[in-house]
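Changelog-linked ticket: 2-oxoglutaric acid example.
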Amino acid sequence: MNTTDYASVKKAYDHDGYAFLPAFLSEEEITRIREELNTFIAQQVPGMPPGYVFYEDKSDPATLKQLQDMHRYSPFFEKMLEGSRFEELAAVLLDDTAVPKNIEYFNKPAHIGKATPPHQDGYYFMLKPVKAITMWLALEPADETNGCVRYIKGSHLKPMRPHGRTQTLGFSQGITDYSEQDKTEEVFFPAKAGDLLVHDAMTIHRTDPNGSARSRKALGFIYFGASAKEDLEAKAAYQQRLHEERFEKNEK
Ligand SMILES: O=C(O)CCC(=O)C(=O)O
């Protein structure tokens, strides 16, 4: 994809709060990523701190569901996040210099992968203004049965909704007043391996549990706009609250 094509993506992104880019990566690229991911899981994950690795069932490594900050542990994933086509696209859509922040792994293991609660990424990011983008790259087919991404169109143009603590590991905050009406407004995106979804940090999104016999693997990329400032005090207070809650529950 070249910059001319980016113009139509930007139009959809600005209007809807998200955009779909089919076949952003080729089959060969996806095969290479899957190989690197397997190596990463075997070699890096055992040494990563608990807050960066989440399992559906802590006692079973086969239930790995989420990884954070993979770029810090692997030159391959660092190169995917920084100075990449993803960063180039982020800069166009943000209309700003894109600051690479995070590359994440999102898996929903077959049968047991839990739902991702409805949320706005900006609630976690604590930015002023909330200028950031998330990209979601399918590594295998995602559909209605295994938890494809669902968005509410135009929600990025409305104020931040109230969020509260969830019981979902890796997604500690969810919208507390999410209604049946909200659900009727959802637009869902089945995706093939290599398809890319991009969304504004204010866009409401969620995913269903995985009720199928197939896993649902994806990578997430986060970029902040250089003109947005992180509210470091609020962030530190939030981390402290999470830490205390975990301590009270005797979680690691
Ligand atoms: O993959 C998922 O279930 C959720 C992903 C998500 O919330 C995100 O990319 O912001």
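Closing comment: Example verified and attached. The chain has one domain: 3-248. The chain has seven helices and 15 strands.
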